Every structure is written in structure tokens, then in C-alpha cells.
Amino acid sequence: MRLAVALLMVAAFASVPLWLRDPYLMNALITTGIFIIGAMSLNLLLGFTGQLSLGHIAFFGIGAYVSALTSLGFDAGLPFGFRMVHEPWPPIIGFVLAIIVAGFCGYLVGLLSFRVRGAYFVIVTISFAEVVRLVALNWVELTQGPLALTNIPSITIGLPGLGDLTLRTKLQNYYLVLAVAIIAYVLISRLVHSHFGRAMRGLMENETLAVSVGIDVTKTLTLAAVISAGIAGAAGSLYAHYIRIIDPEVFAFINTVTMVIMVITGGKGSLAGPVVGGVIFGLLPVFLRPIMAPEAQWIAYGGVLIVILFVLPRGIVPSLAQRFVRPRKAIETVVPVAFAERDAKEHA
Amino acid sequence: MGQFLQHLLNMLVLGGTYALLGIGLTLIFGIMNVVNFTHGVLYTFGAYIMFIVVHQLGINFFLALPLAVLAGWLLGAAIELTLLRPLRGSDIDTTMLVMIGAWIAMQSGALWIWGGVAKSVATPFPEAPLVLGPVSVSWLRLFVLAAAAMLIVVTYLLINKTKLGGAMRATFQDRDTALLMGVNVDLIYTSTFAIGSSLAAAAGALLGPVYVIFPQMGDLAAVKAFAIVILGGLGNITGAVIGGFILALAEELGAGYVSSGYRDAMGFLIIIAVLIFKPTGLFARSERVG
Predict the structure, then answer these.
(1) pLDDT, tens digit, for every residue of B12-29?
(2) Distance from CA of A295 to the nearest CA of B (A)
């Protein structure tokens, strides 16, 4: 049943280019898809470990820059007279490196920032993203600073029997993004339903109790951070090779907020949440554009975020699921709810 | 040597306004346990009030500062009453996200109303700086320092010598006991948020004429305020003042001796370093750990 629904959704998404010919809408769909991948990776941290990472765009941006620099090549000076010279490599290697480097950054950030919780964690993650943005802005020799990296090549993939295919058209990029999104979705789904997924949920509900039953906090959270950052890096790489120009503005806090809005609206801790929220908020500008100034749109976004938190604090998907679908037994909590509630009361 | 003295002097001027920003945020953070993402918007708001009062209403420059403080107080009270009061008792993440929503909406509102073009405020001070041996400082900056120092003293007296301040400190130490002792906690929360907001607006009104005024100017200010609060420890006013000056010193030295491009990175680096090595802040009193 669930598989049937999933296949139906995939078929629906895959059929879009068959009846939608408008290039502007296709463009909106592709960038939306890329941001949905980012939102899915954010949801892994926000929804399944309960850590509100507001520096998530850093991993997206790092992925974008790593991928772009790998495929463009660079020649940058390092301290103590060393130089770093790199000849252009195929973009597909950039894509892989983007995942690896972003994942490694996720590991470092996770290692450092999971020492603190709550408000402090949020502030550390924001600070990390801003430091990365300032480096991208000021290390002009490597990143061209505000002048942006331009002429980033499109991704070329080797197809068996068909030779190399360079993905230049919107149609090709749409299917590339869709394919990566499906892989990311399946990966996150498998992870969440695994032993690690239960450990993450246990931590989210009651950390003290989770530790007492033998869950390794640092290991669990760091693994979640690595996978989350890696997927965000993949999304960033897709972004770089599709838009073909990136500047330090990619690290803007507003981009993290966009992902957060997608996750919260759709429903954090729900696999389909970021997809639903992403489709709504990715396509909303398309419909608002003719009737509203961009500033007014952002006012509306802020307003919608507030209203959603007041009216549907759990998001659209969980609220609907509660009404129409019987809960699955598989994702039961490992920690009794009573303990979590007592804990919440003590902290209130 | 002269250059170093100049950096120290700049640090003093900058540190005063940073301290104001930090005190406002640390009060709200400490007493209400709210991560106030609208703090930067209040800073921007104060700066625009300054611009409107001086240029559009044509009122005296010196009168603009108290008006900005008052406007910040009113806007802060309004935010608390409409957004935070209904959320009392919800978890800190929800409150944080609501404040982010309010920040996005208000900043975009500022962009919509006043446009993205930077504005500058004309001041009644002479152009020529005051030269003291090897260092020089503009009269405007001296005024900013004096006004900031005065506001810090007023806030200190308000918190430590008045009945309202006593109730605020009691709420900070133990909300439930304060409630039992007859403290009107709702009123304390609204007052705290309004006072914190008015201090942010004052900082914006003071630094706005020194630099230029634009809708996103509050973003960096907010992060700096967070850095100061984290340096000084939660709810610690003295810590916030010292933190403000430490941040200003780090920025001045970073800009002077490392690279001016990384001036604004100092706040973030301080945040990361403090939270990794001493998460309770440099001046946290032992009973407030955690």
C-alpha cells in the first residue's frame, strides 16, 4: 500500500515534463526540487534528532563551491608560500567530492556543536554558516569573492551504450534532480527505520534516558549530521551545475530559513513533510509574483511561518496523517512518553 | 603605538553600543528564555526612527534618541503581547521559529517601506575630529559613547535599585517562587521584552548616524549581540557590558592587524570558541550553570 503510494508519487513527479512545457515553471520546479533535497536533509536533523540546525545552508554552499571549483579548476595561494593548483575535473567527480567534503564538514561541526544543546546549538550553527560565508566572500583568489564563480560546466554522465550525455536542458536537469531526490528520500527513509533511526528518536524524546539504555549520543548525532550534511552538499552541487554561477550569497541565512519553513510547514519528523512543504513554498513565489512585490512575499512568508506554528504546530503531513491514517507500529518510541513529559515539565 | 591607542579608543566607542545591544538581549534571554531573533530588527528600527525624526519630521537630533527608545519600547511590548504571550509554555524551538518568522516579516517590511538604498543621518556635530596627541575621534562618536554609557547606567539602576528591577531579578532566579510571592510574571515578561527592545533601538539610533542605515543592518548586530551574551553568560548584565567591550576590541584588532574583511567574523569566532571551551560564558555565576 505504502509502496503503491510512493510509486504513484514518483510517477506523478516524473510525468510533469510531459504536460508542462513552460520553461519558467520548469525552472521553478528544478530549483524547488534542489531545495527540497536540502530540506529533506535538514529534516533528518530537525525532525528526527530534534536539533534545530540553522546553519544548514553552509553544507549546501560548501557542496556548491566544492563542486564548482573541482570542475573549474583553481590556483590559489596558501599561507607560508604554498600554492594550491588544480586542473579542471569532470563535474560528476565534483558532485561526489561535494558530498564527501560537505559530509566531512558535517562531522566536524557535529563533533563541536553537539557539545551544546538548545539555543546554544542554534547559535553555533548560525555562526558556522556565517564564518563560511565570510571566507567565501574574502578568499577572493579561490572563490572570486563577490565576483562569483561563473561558467560552471553542466554535469556530464556516462550512460552505458549511449556515450556521454551532458545535462544542459531543463528537462534533463529535472530528471537528474528527481533521481537524486528519490535516492535521498530512500536513504533517509532506510536510516530512520533502522536501529540508528530509533536511537535518534530516543535521543530526541529523552536524552538522559536514552543514554541510560546505552545509546551513544555523540556517535548517533554525528552520524545524522554527516549524512544530513552530505545530502545537503549533493543538493548544493546540483544547484551549482544547474544555475552555473554561484556567489557568497548562496550562504545567506534566508536560504536556511527557506528550508526551515519547508520542513516546519510540511511537518518535521515526517518523511513526506519536506516534500509537501517544499512544493508549497517552492511554487508559491510563482503564483505570488504577478500580484505581490518580492518584499511583500517575504512578509507573507514570515507571517505564514508564524501562523503555521500557531495553528498547525506539527505541520501539514502529520496533522493529515493523524486524521486519515492509522499509526504504524514500526516507529514506536523507544522511550516511554511519560518520562518525556515529566522531563518537559521539569524544564518548563 | 599610536595605531594601537587609536584601536583602543575605537574599541571604547564601539563597545558602549555593543554593550547596550548585549544587555537588551541578555535580559530577554535570561529572564524569558527566549532567543530573540527580532533583536536585530529592533536595532534597525531604532536607526530608522532616528532618520525619520531628523529628516522627515525635522525634529532635533538629540530629541530623536529618546523617541527611538520609546518607539523600540512600544514595538517590543507589542511583539511580546501578540507573539510571545500566547506561546508561553511551548518549547524553546517553537518560540525561536516564531521569532524567526517575525524577523523575516519585519525586515522585509522595512525593505518594503524604506527601500534598500542606504540612508545617512545628518548630525549637528562638526566634521573635524577631536585630536588628542596621536589619536583622533569624531565628536559624533564621543556623543555616542557618552549616550551609551548613560543608558547603561540607567539600565543598571533600573535593574538593581527599583521595585520592577527586583521583580525582574526574582523572576530570573526562580519564576515559580516569584509567582508565589505575588510577582506579576506576565507583566515582568512584557516589561523585560520592552526594555530589551528599547535598548536595541537605542543602539541602532546611536550607531545609525555613525554608519549608514539600511534594512539588513540589524542582522550582523543581532549576531554580535548573541556573541556578547554568550561571552558574558546568560542574564548577566555586567557580563554583557564586559562582553561588549571584548567583542569591540577583538573586532578592532582583527580589522587592524588581520584583515578588515574578517572584522565581522570575530563575533562568530568568539561564539564558536566560547561555546566549545567554556559554554557557560566567561563570567557565569556558579549557581546559574546549565
Answers:
(1) 888 999 999 999 999 998
(2) 5
